[in-house]
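#struct-queue
[09:14] JT: dropping the first one here, sequence first, then the C-alpha cells:
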Amino acid sequence: MAAEMQRFVTSEDDDEEMGMDVKEEDDEDDDDGEKNIESPPMLGVDGGLASASSNNRFVHHQQYQEQPTPQGGSRRCRPQEEKERTKLRERQRRAITAKILAGLRRHGNYNLRVRADINDVIAALAREAGWVVLPDGTTFPSRSQGCNLQCLQGARPVGGTCSTVVTSSSSHIPAQQTPPISLRGISSPYQNTVDYNACQMKSVFVPTSSPYDESSSIRTNSSPLLGDGGDVHNDPLLGGSIDSLDNKQVDISTKLQERDFAGTPYVPVYVMLPLGIINMKCELVDPDGIIKQLRVLKSINVDGVMIDCWWGIVEAHVPQEYNWNGYKRLFQIVRELKLKLQVVMSFHECGGNIGDDVCIPLPNWVAEIGRSNPDIYFTDRAGRRNPECLSWGIDKERVLRGRTAVEVYFDYMRSFRAEFDEFFEDGMISMIEVGLGPCGELRYPSYPVKHGWRYPGIGEFQCYDQYMLNSLRKAAENRGHSFWARGPDNAGSYNSCPHETGFFCDGGDYDGYYGRFFLNWYSQVLIEHGDRVLSLANLVFEGTCIAVKLSGTPWWYKTASHATELTSGFYNSCNRDGYAAIVAMLKKHGVILNFTCAGMSLLNQNVDFSEALADPEGLTWQVLNTAWDVCVPVASENALPCHDREGYNYLSEKAKPMNDPDGRHLFSFTYLRLSPLLMERHNFLEFERFVKRVHGEAVLDILA
C-alpha cells in the first residue's frame, strides 16, 4: 500500500509539471473573448498518463504565450506572480484529492488504480449514487426517467428517492462536508450527501468493478440500501466509462454489497395476524390453518404475533357485555406454540383503509346512539360525519348510555385484563397497544378516503362536532378573544394544495395570531386525549409494556406550514417541533412509540413524492430522534405487505440505523401481515432471511 501511495503522489506531481503552465485561471481574460485551451491528458494502455517530452512542453507553452487574438497581434504573457498563485491553488487541490483518495483506499476497501481519469471517477460515483451517465457525459437523476436505473437493476426506489449513498464506516471525510439537515420542512437544496459533497469536493473517486470486501461497511444517509443492483453489463445507459484512447466503452458494473447484520443487537420480530381471523360472532376462523401457519413461523424463530381485539366484535350488542371466546381459543394456540403476543385494543372501525379486507364497524349500540346524536363522531367543516372512531370531544361527556368515552375504553380494557390474567402472569402477552384514533393511531381522521380524499391532498380539520366546538369556544374565551371560536374559513378542502389556500400558503394565516391559537388548541386536544386514556391503561396493565401507534404524514413536509401534519393534529410547522410534546406525554406514562410513516405505503404505487414536496425520510428521522433523545423506545411496522429483497433491506436498515452514533435501534418490529402470499416458498425464504438479519444472525447468501 505504501508503494502504491508513493506512485500515486508521484503521478500527481508529474501531472503538475506537465500541465500547470497550460491550465491557468484568469477571469479577466473574458474581456478579450479568449479561452484557455488545454489538451486533455492522454491515457496509456496501462491506464497511466502518457509522458510528453520537455521540448513538446516548451513548444506548447510558447504557443500559449504567443497565441494570436482574433483582432490580430499576440496575447500578452501573464504576470509571473499570478502564475505562481495559480500553481499554488492547483497544488492545494491536488493535495486534498490525494488525501481523500488515499484515505478511502485505505479505510473504505476500494480497489482503485493509481492513475484514474477524473471523468471515470465522477461518472462511476454518479452511477453508484443512482444517477444515469450517458457516454457523451450527459448526466441526470434516474427518477426523472421513471426510475429506469432502479428498474433495470431490479430495485425500486425507497424513501422517496432513487439515490443511494455509500460511505465507509471509518471514513475520514471531514465533518464540514456533511450536508446541513433540515428538520423543520425548509429542506436543504442538496438531496443527499453525494449532491452536497459534489459541490464541496474538488476531486472524487469511486471503486472499480471489483466487488467490495465482505467485511466492508455500508452506510445509508438519505436513502436506504437497495440490494445487489442487478445486471447492467449490456445496457447502453449503465455501462462504464469512456476510454480516451480508443473511445471504446468499458463496463464498470459495481455490485453493491448488502450490509452484514451479524452480531448486531437482537430486535424481536412479530407477525400481524389477518384482520378476519376472528369473525363477527367472535369465533376463530380456520383454527387448523392458523396452527399450521404459526408452526411455520415458529420454525424460523419469529418471536410472536400481533392481534387486534376489536371493540366492535367483543362488545357488539349490549354495553358492558363482552364476548372473548374466539380470542381465548387463539391465545391458547399461541401459547402452546410458545410464541409471544402483542395485543391491540382496537377502538376504531375496520374497513375503507389501505389493506383492510374485512369490515368491522363500531358496536351496534354505539351506532344507535350515533343515529340520534351524530356529534359523537368527528365532523368536517361541511358537516360530514366520520363513524370510524369517536370524537375526542366526548371523552368526558356522558353520552354513551351514562358513560363517557374514556370510561367505555377503561371498562373494555379491564374486562380484557381480567379475562386473560393467566396470559399476563406467565408473560406470554408482551405488549398492549392502545388504540387512540382512526386506524388505531394517535391522529385526527383528517384524510378519509370515504369523503373523497386522494393523495396528496392536505386533508381537513376535524373539529366541527358540537363537543369540539364547545371546547374551542371555551379556549377562545379564556384567551379573551371569543370571536376566535371558529375553525379556519380559508383552509381549503381535502384535496387542496397548501399554496392554494390562504391558511397554509407561505406567510398564510397559520402563522398569524389566530392561526397559532387555533393550531395550539387543536393539537392540545390530541395530546390530552392520549394522556387521559393512557393514564387509565397504565392502571389496568400495570407491569406490562404499553405502546401507542403514531403514523407520520410526510406529504408537504418540505413546505413551511406542513399542512397535512397540521390537519392531522401535529403542530409541526417550520418554526415548531410538533412531536416533542407528544413524546413528552408518552414518556410521562412510560409508553413505547410505535411509529409508521404513512407515506411509505405509497411507495409501491409509483407515487411521485417530489410533486407533493414529501420527505418520508426526513419525517422519520425527526420523529425517531425526538423519541430517542428523551429515551422513549421506538417500535415499528411496515405500512404495506413486503415480499422482495429490496423492501426487506430497507426495513432492516430502519430497524438498526447504521449511521446512528449511539447505536440505537428499534424496540421491536411487527411485520404486516400473515397471508397465503407470504407462505409461498420464495417469499417465505426472503422473510426468513429478513428475520435472521434483524435478529443479528449471519446470513450465508449475504452477497447473493
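[09:21] JT: and here's the second one, same format:
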Amino acid sequence: MSLQTRSMERTSAGEKQQTWHQYRIFIEEVNSLIGSALVEEFRNDNENDVNPNIIVGNGENLPRGATKLINAADPKELGQIVLDCDIVIFHQNYCRAEYAYKLLKHGQYQQTKTFILISNPMTWSTTPLKERKIDETAIRQSMGGDTEDQPIFKKYDKFTENDLPIRKINFLERLKHLEQQIIVCDKPQLHAYIITPGLVYGNGEDILYDLFKTAWMTPDAELPIYGDGNNIIPMIHVNDLANIVNKTVTLTPNEKYIFAVDYENMTQKKLINTIAKSVGNGFTKNVTTATEKLLTINVWLRPTQVFESDDQYIDANKNPIILWQSKEGFTKNIIKIREQFKQYRGLDTVKLIVHGGTTSGKSNLCKQLANFYRIPHIQIKPLIQELIEQQSELGELVRNTLTQVKDQLVAEALAIFEAEKKKKKVPKGQPEPVFDPSGIQPRLPDSVLIQVYKWRLDQNDAQNLGYVLDGFPKTLEQYEKLFLNEEGQLIESIKPKGVIYLEYTDDQLKERAKQINDNPRYSEDLVVKRLANFRKNNEQLLSQYEQLDIKRISDSESAFEQTKDFITRNGPILVLQDVKDEEVVQMDEQQDDVSPSPQTSSIQQEKVAVVQQSQFQQSQVGPKKKGDQLNKSINESRQSKDNKKLTDEQKQDLIRQQERELLDQRSQPLRQYLADNVVPFLTEGLINICEKHPENPLQFLADFLEQKGNELQALGQ
C-alpha cells in the first residue's frame, strides 16, 4: 500500500470552500491503551470521508479508524513506513523508536515530518524532589496559596520542563540517550518532541487494571498501599495525553520537552483510597512489597504551559488550547473513569426487578440469579438490618424511625387492649390478661424506605455488577419515587433493564401457600389479604413495567432458564457463574417492610466462569488485546472444572501454554534491563566487528565491551 498525502477541496451550495489535508501517521502498538487513544484522536474519517488521515501501526487487530497493520519487527518494512509518514509516534519500544528517529534524522526528504516520543515518568524517579525555598514558602502561605493538607506539597515545588538539566537517571539508559538525541535535533525538516506523561489512566486501564479488577470482582478485597503511601504520583488521562500529542503536532511549539500531567496533586494513598471507595468496598491495607513500580515513584511535575504565552495563560480557562477531559484529575472524575472501565472491558450489568404475588417463587428465583450472575440480591429485611447496624446518617434515620413507628403502634395496641379489657370481666380464679408488645413489628414509611433502596442501588457492587430486586416496588407510587427524577425521567445510574413477572392465578398461589407448614404468615386469611393488596396495585404497576421490558413466566420449573434467555435477549453478556451444590428454597418467603431480626449466613465457596463475552466489547475501540486480561483471569479460575473434560494431550498443551505465558510475564523485567543496559553496547560492538573484520572477533568484542565499561565507570554511570 502506498501512502500519499493529498489535499482536496469541497464546495456545496451555500457553503464556503473547505480544504482537507490528509496526513500519513504511524502509531506504535495501536491496540494498547495509549495507541488506541491516539488512533481515536487522529482519525478524521467521521468528518472527512473523501481523503481521511491514513493511520498505520503495528498490533494484533486493526482498530476502527486505522488503515493498515505492519510488522514492526521487520526493520525494512518499518523503515519504509517511517520514511513515508508525516507523523511518527512511539510510546513503548524504545529500541524501534531510536531506529525510526535515526532514519528520519539522516534520511532525505522534502516535506516536514514530526517525530513524537512518549517517554516514561520513571526517568524522573531517581531525581530528589525540588525543595521549596523558605522565603517562597512563607509568601505562599501568607497569600493562602497552599490548599493541600499533605505536608509534602507544602515542602516541595513542582518540576517544570526547564528542570531537565538537573534530572538524574540511574537506569533506562537507552531511553535517556534517545531523549538527548531528540533534544539537540536541528534538522529543519524534522520536528522532534519528547512528551513525558504521568501515570496513564482511563478507558480500559493498564497500570491500574489489577487494582480495578480486584476491587470490581472481590467483595472483601483490601487494596494494597505500598509503605506510608505519601509519595507523589503525577497522572494523566489517556485521552488528555492523546490530545496533548495532537496539539504538539499541530502547533509545533519551540520547546522539545513537554510534561503531560493533569492538575491534581495525587499521592499513592489518595489514589488507592479513591479506587477502593469508588469501585470496591473501601478497604485498604499497607504492604511492604510493591507490585507496580509506577505506584512507588515520588515525582511532582507541573502541567505543561508550553502551548500558552504569559498573556494567554490568564485566559486559559476561558479559551483552552488543550481540550481536557479530566483536567481536575483522577479523584474528581472517578465515576466517569469507572464507567469507562465498564464500557471498554465489556462489563455489562444485570439490573432486574422480580415481581409477583405471595408464594410465587420470587426469592427462590432471585437467589438463583444472584448466584449465577454474582450480583446483589436486594431484600428488604437484610437491607434494613444492615442499616440498623451501620453507624451512618441513614442508619440513624432508620433506627429512629423504627423506634418511633413501634412506639406509636404499641400505644395504639395498648389503648385497644385496655378498652377490650374493660368490656370483659375476668372470671374469678383466672389471671389478669397481660399486654405483650413483642409481636408488634413496625414498618418503615415509604419516605424512608425509598431512601434505603436508593442508597443500596448506589453502592459500588450494584453500580458495577447490577442487582436483582426481590418484590419491590410494590406500588406505582414507590416505583416513581425510586426510579424517576424530578423531571419524571428514569435515573440512568439505577434504572432497571427489565422485569420478570411470575404470573399465577390466586388459586395457584393459595394452593402453593397450603404446602408451607408451620408458618403463621401463610395462614389462609393472611394469604387472602396479601393477595387482595397485590391485585389492587398490580395493574397500574404492570402498565408501567410494560414500558421497560417485561417477561411473564408461569412455569416455575423453567423460570430460571427463561429469565437467562430474557437477560441475553439483546445479545450475550459477560457473566460470572456461581457453581454451588446446595438446595434452594422451593417456596417464596414474602419479604415485608418490617424490622428483621439478626440472621447468620454460612460462608459459601464460589467459582466463577465465563458464559459468553459481550458483543458490545467486541465492537468497542479500546485496549482490548487477544486474551483480554479480565476474561483470562475468569477463565483461569474455571480450568480446574474444565480440565476434567480435556484429553491428556489437550491438558499438556494447556499446561505448556500457561508455562509460556508465565515465563513471558516473569522475563519482562529482565528483557527490559537487557534492552536498556546491554543491547546498545553489544550492538555497537557487533557493528565494529562488521566494519573491521578482526581475526579473533570474540576477543575483539570482549576487549570492546571492557573498554566501554571502563569509559562508563569513569563517567560515573
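[09:30] RK: nice, looked through the second one.
[09:31] RK: Residues 685 and 702 are 9 Å apart (CA to CA).
[09:31] JT: good to know. Residues 393-423 form the longest helix (31 residues).
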